[in-house]
């Protein structure tokens, strides 16, 4: 039986492959600070894309996208501010927050899922 961490990692791998196929370039993965974590930091053209990946086996209980609560969004925003404070090279890009919901083998990419 696969544990939650391994399932989440495989969901994140699937999301990363999907986004690369759609032209995004990886900047960093699993950026962590005290306040939170950003699963994927990528570039799409001249836009910095900060991505939360949510994995669920099924859409039961609202599915993967519904699990990105206001509290989780706040933690991601704080982590993004931290990232930009330490990575001056990324400050020149406009940024957006996306969510990639992985449910089983289905991948849904939600652009501009939330804002500051």
From TrEMBL:
The lineage of its organism: Bacteria, Pseudomonadati, Pseudomonadota, Gammaproteobacteria, Steroidobacterales. This is UPF0102 protein HNQ60_003771. HAMAP family: UPF0102. Keywords: Endonuclease, Hydrolase, Nuclease. Belongs to the UPF0102 family. It comes from Povalibacter uvarum. GO terms for molecular function: endonuclease activity; nucleic acid binding. The keyword Cytoplasm does not apply. The keyword Hydrolase applies. It comes from the Bacteria.
